[in-house]
Design a protein that fits this description.
Blueprint (H helix, E strand, L loop, with lengths): L4 E4 L3 H10 L3 E4 L5 H7 L6 E4 L8 E3 L5 E4 L4 H6 L1 H6 L1 H8 L4 H6 L2 H5 L51 H7 L3 E6 L2 E6 H4 L18 E7 L6 E7 L10 E10 L2 E10 L6 E2 L1 H7 L6 H12 L10 H20 L2 H4 L1
Length: about 325
């Protein structure tokens, strides 16, 4: 058994320094993902740096009309916060669709963003996995792929990112606030995550000693938004596909739209092609279907998940149709 040390960091800067100075150190917050991986032998740090008690648990208004969320805000508190429910309903819905109430009470904002894939081969140390052991191979390529990627996969990895919250935050153009050895910076979520390429062991563009201390979400752009998750059972299941959508209709045409998908790629997937296809068009079922098709043209399904193409198409159309029907009539005509 590998010895495991524990240190409780007194402040964020010390936490960063401890991880920087110890090559096998890891940050520990809610522990809902890391502790599972420790038990499975998937991750084997020699030092856990506890940041769970640090004062990073505020939700405050930002100067631009948005909101700043501390990295230690619990998922249940974020979902229930009145500002989040009023300005960003898609985020609240995404959080409430994830995990169980007990896990949401422990899981943190920062940890949720950085959680690792639930690919069955990644979590089974008896099987080859490039994400867990670079160069060993990807067992999923010839195995069980029901939950695996449609977009952006490589010969090295076809796993998907598990977070619901991250999909909604990506659609909202959120930025991670990151503290590193050189100080604090912001990283747009679309630049935070990476595709597997030939280095699937890297989930993000962050350095090992970078600590997410918060998230900034700008003011909402659209008049209405939502999140829909399709899964094998009603609870305790990760998404087969999910859709975060925000829509604005002005003078009978779509003047703004933000779309992101979950359960379909190594990272939360921003649907830029679909967004472009929607802008300037009248909100209709045929327009929504054409936009979904524009995004799905790049899909590369595997033998076991080809059904997800049609499933995602139907979900996109249904979500956009429902949003369009909820927009007040004076805004759409």
């Amino acid at each position: 058994m590998k010895p495991l040390r524990y240190e409780r960091a007194p402040d964020p800067a010390t936490a960063v320094a401890l991880v920087h100075d110890n090559p096998d150190a890891a940050f520990l917050a809610g522990g809902t993902n890391l502790v599972d991986n420790l038990k499975l032998g998937v991750e084997t740090p020699g030092l856990l740096v506890d940041i769970s008690h640090l004062p990073l648990d505020d939700i405050v208004d930002a100067a631009d009309g948005g909101v700043r969320i501390g990295a230690n805000v619990r998922n249940s508190d974020l979902a229930a916060h009145p500002v989040v429910r009023r300005r960003y309903p898609m985020l609240s819905r995404a959080l409430l669709s994830g995990a169980s109430a007990q896990l949401r009470n422990s899981a943190t904002t920062g940890g949720n963003l950085l959680q690792r894939t639930r690919c069955v081969y990644f979590r089974d140390v008896s099987t080859p996995c490039n994400k867990r052991e670079p160069g060993s191979g990807c067992s999923a390529l010839e195995g069980y792929t029901r939950y695996h990627a449609l977009f952006g996969a490589s010969e090295g990895c076809v796993a998907t990112h598990p977070s619901d919250m991250a999909v909604a935050m990506l659609a909202l153009d959120a930025e991670a606030v990151v503290l590193g050895p050189e100080g604090e910076r912001t990283v747009p979520l679309e630049e935070l995550y990476r595709l597997p390429g030939d280095a699937p062991e890297l989930d993000t563009t962050l350095a090992r000693d970078d600590l997410v201390v918060g998230v900034h979400i700008p003011a909402p752009q659209g008049s209405i938004s939502t999140y829909r998750k399709v899964r094998d059972r009603a609870a305790f299941a990760f998404a087969l596909v999910s859709v975060a959508a925000e829509l604005t209709v002005t003078d009978g045409a779509i003047s703004g739209c933000r779309l992101a998908f979950g359960g379909v790629a190594h990272r939360p997937w921003r649907a830029h092609r679909a967004e472009e296809a929607l802008l300037g068009q009248p909100p209709s079922e045929s327009v929504f279907a054409a936009a979904a098709d524009a995004e799905l043209a790049a899909a590369q399904p595997l033998d076991g998940n080809a059904f997800k193409v049609a499933l995602l198409r139907r979900t996109v159309v249904a979500v956009l149709r429902d949003l369009a029907e909820r927009i007040p009539r004076e805004e759409s005509v």
